[in-house]
Design brief:
By secondary structure, the protein is α+β, with helices and mostly antiparallel strands. The chain has a single domain, classed as 60s Ribosomal Protein L30, Chain: A (2-Layer Sandwich), CATH 3.30.1330. Helices cover 22% and strands 35% of the residues. It has three helices and ten strands, in the order βββββααβαββββ. The strands form two sheets. Strands 1-3-8-9-10 form a five-stranded mixed sheet, with no helix packed on it. The chain has a five-stranded mixed sheet with strand order 2-5-4-6-7, covered by helices on one side. It is globular and about 45 Å long. The mean pLDDT is 95.
């Protein structure tokens, strides 16, 4: 079954037949996690780096922000049996689409926030496809844990 992750959404599953996917990652950041032992995985599609700009929205939709979406994604995976030590994390997006001049740098700021949170929690990024000026679609295949990025007509495994 396909689980589509919209902007600001989080989806976690332990069903082997599932594919978790998100479309149109521009400056937004898509993050997948997968525990190969518990066979639990999930994805968040974060739009902005820091929740301090709107705490009410952050409580309602933690996936909107990188600083609240990452912890919420991990907590949801833990509830299904994943453990931090086994989690494989992959990231995509954070491009400068619609911001070629770098005025807002939302993609850069999203990625910097991700790196800071992961560094503080001793978590490494296993693989990534970030930056540039392209849109990406991200797929997490639950039967294998493979993450596929589709961009500009090409499929790439992270």
């Amino acid at each position: 079954m396909n689980h589509i992750v919209g902007i600001s959404e989080i989806k976690v599953t332990d069903q082997e037949d599932d594919v978790v996917l998100t479309y149109s990652l521009g400056s937004c950041l898509g993050i997948t996690i997968y525990d190969p032992v518990a066979r639990v995985g999930g994805m968040v599609h974060c739009m902005l780096p820091l929740s301090k700009i709107d705490q009410v929205k952050a409580r309602k939709k933690p996936g909107m922000f990188v600083d609240t979406g990452i912890p919420a994604l991990f907590e949801a995976a833990y509830r299904l049996g994943a453990t931090k030590e086994r989690i494989i994390l992959k990231a995509a997006g954070a491009s400068r689409i619609l911001d070629e001049k770098g005025t807002f740098k939302i993609g850069d700021r999203n990625y910097a926030t991700l790196r800071k949170i992961l560094w503080k929690n001793n978590i490494l990024i296993a693989s990534e496809d970030v930056g540039g000026a392209v849109s990406r679609t991200m797929y997490l295949e639950m039967d294998t844990g493979r993450v596929i990025i589709k961009s500009q007509g090409n499929n790439t495994e992270l």
